[in-house]
Recover the amino acids of this structure.
């Protein structure tokens, strides 16, 4: 395994991918430290999957330079395959093969000896709680079970770097929490993980985070630093008429976003100077409403970052 103190696990400069007139990834600069969980946060179609496929060497960039684990990509993509794992967004194993047969098949693709295959499968059955499912067809597994099988297949070769493309999109909250516990175990063991997600709670778990919008990097850093450096003020509006109050703020100058959460409104404004204007406008529909400054959360950061790039609405994959 490479020296973790040396170069970043991933370094990309000016990474760009065009599909005809559509710019799916737009001059992206990335530096992913080794041994960390690094998150891609963005809505569906913002370029997360396209970026991951280029970093893996599965898709040629239109422009830009990529180094992954000190290898030049795509020129050295074949050498990279032995050192990475990739868990795709949709379940990509064979549904008509058993759990054991799927893992044996992947192990043979990596060229593991029979003895090493047996040893590695025993380890994975235990780690990912697959012992009782070993002879069950993959197509009959639940969402959480398929997820554990897919992750076991992705780490079968002990990868230095693991790519996970929205890996929890089809599982329940408990399975998501269990899954993240496993990911942190891998990071503690020295594996670098790049995880794409559109869930704010998952983004909060990452050591570092890149927020993508329309294929462009809008913000990057630790979740704590991103919240600390966000420009804008978050307000919590408590009112008996949240829908009417929200409509009253629709055209209010200085209001960036307004969302109802239960019986309250969460409002993101440009600065504290907007606080008095928001309070006055809200009280026109509810004289007893309260408006108070509240702590910034990651959703506020996401809204502030993505609103900085208006007028880009084309879908990306």
């Amino acid at each position: 395994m490479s020296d973790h103190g040396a170069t970043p696990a991933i370094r990309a400069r000016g990474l760009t991918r065009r599909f005809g007139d559509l710019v799916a990834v737009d001059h992206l600069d990335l530096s992913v430290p080794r041994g960390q969980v690094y998150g891609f946060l963005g809505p569906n179609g913002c370029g997360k999957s396209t970026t991951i496929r280029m970093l893996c060497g599965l898709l040629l960039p239109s422009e830009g330079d990529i180094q992954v684990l000190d290898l030049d990509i795509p020129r050295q993509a074949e050498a990279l395959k032995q050192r990475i794992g990739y868990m795709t967004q949709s379940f990509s194993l064979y549904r008509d093969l058993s759990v054991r047969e799927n893992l044996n098949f992947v192990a043979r693709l990596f060229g593991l000896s029979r003895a090493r295959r047996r040893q590695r499968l025993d380890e994975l059955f235990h780690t990912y709680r697959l012992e009782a499912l070993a002879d069950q067809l993959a197509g009959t597994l639940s969402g959480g079970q398929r997820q554990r099988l897919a992750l076991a297949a992705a780490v079968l070769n002990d990868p230095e770097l693991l790519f996970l493309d929205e890996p929890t999109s089809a599982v329940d909250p408990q399975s998501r929490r269990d899954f993240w516990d496993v990911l942190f175990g891998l990071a503690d063991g020295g594996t670098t993980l790049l995880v794409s997600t559109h869930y704010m709670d998952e983004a909060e778990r990452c050591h570092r985070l890149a927020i993508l919008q329309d294929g462009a990097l809008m913000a990057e850093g630790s979740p704590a630093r991103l919240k600390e450096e966000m420009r804008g003020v978050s307000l919590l509006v408590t009112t008996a008429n949240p829908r009417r109050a929200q409509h009253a703020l629709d055209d209010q100058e200085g209001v960036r976003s307004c969302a109802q959460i239960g019986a309250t409104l969460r409002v993101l404004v440009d600065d504290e100077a907007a606080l008095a204007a928001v309070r006055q406008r809200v009280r026109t529909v509810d004289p007893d409403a309260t408006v108070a400054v509240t702590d910034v959360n990651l959703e506020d950061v996401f809204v502030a970052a993505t609103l900085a790039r208006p007028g880009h609405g084309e879908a990306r994959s």
Confidence is low (pLDDT under 50) at residues 310-317. Residues 12 and 66 are 4 Å apart (CA to CA). The domain at 231-295 is CATH 3.30.70.260 (Alpha-Beta Plaits).
